[in-house]
Amino acid sequence: MDKIISLQELKKHNSQSSVWMVIHNDVYDVTAFLQEHPGGEDTLLDFAGKDGTQGFEDVGHSDDARELLKKYKIGTLAPGERTAHIESCSKLKWAVLALAGAIVIGFALKKYLNK
Ligand code: HEM
Predict the structure, then answer these.
(1) pLDDT for 13-63, tens place per residue?
(2) Which fold has domain 4-81?
(3) Is the CB of 47 within 6 Å of ligand 1?
(4) Would the CB of 42 count as within 6 Å of ligand 1?
């Protein structure tokens, strides 16, 4: 099972000597990866001890990068301290579905009215 890590613990690892970062509610120790990161040390340090999900996703990291994450995972956030990224994703999903539904109904109505 994943080790549960609190936000309080995460925050302590916020400098070059130890860099922990949250991505999608999992905690990663990227201290050893700082020098190797193709996107630079500073981009990682900016999120040291914090949630880097937004930054990570904004860059559009490759599948290789996502695969690499596994190597650095050390645990997961406590359930009560997880952020709502997943929720906002599913909100987006519903918005897209609603839009698709509206378009389908629109077309059906148009066809019906043109009869
Ligand atoms: C800790 C987890 C991270 C891992 C394992 C990781 C890994 C990688 C890898 C493998 C690349 C090479 C390109 C690719 O394969 O997509 C890359 C590029 C990059 N990463 Fe990260 N990254 C991490 C976090 C972040 C964060 C939090 C940021 C910024 C907020 C960031 C910013 C960038 C940038 C700017 C590039 C360069 C993109 C380019 O030159 O086209 N990365 N990263």
Answers:
(1) 999 999 999 999 999 999 999 999 999 999 999 999 999 999 999 999 999
(2) Flavocytochrome B2; Chain A, domain 1 (3.10.120)
(3) yes
(4) no
Best probe residue, ligand 1, of 56, 59, 62 (max atoms within 8 Å of C-beta)? 59
Residue 9 burial (CB count, 10 A):
15
Mean pLDDT taken over the chain: 93
Ligand 1 atom 40, closest CA: 39
Is residue 114 over pLDDT 90?
no
- Which candidate, 92, 70, 79, 23, places its Cα nearest to that of 51? 23
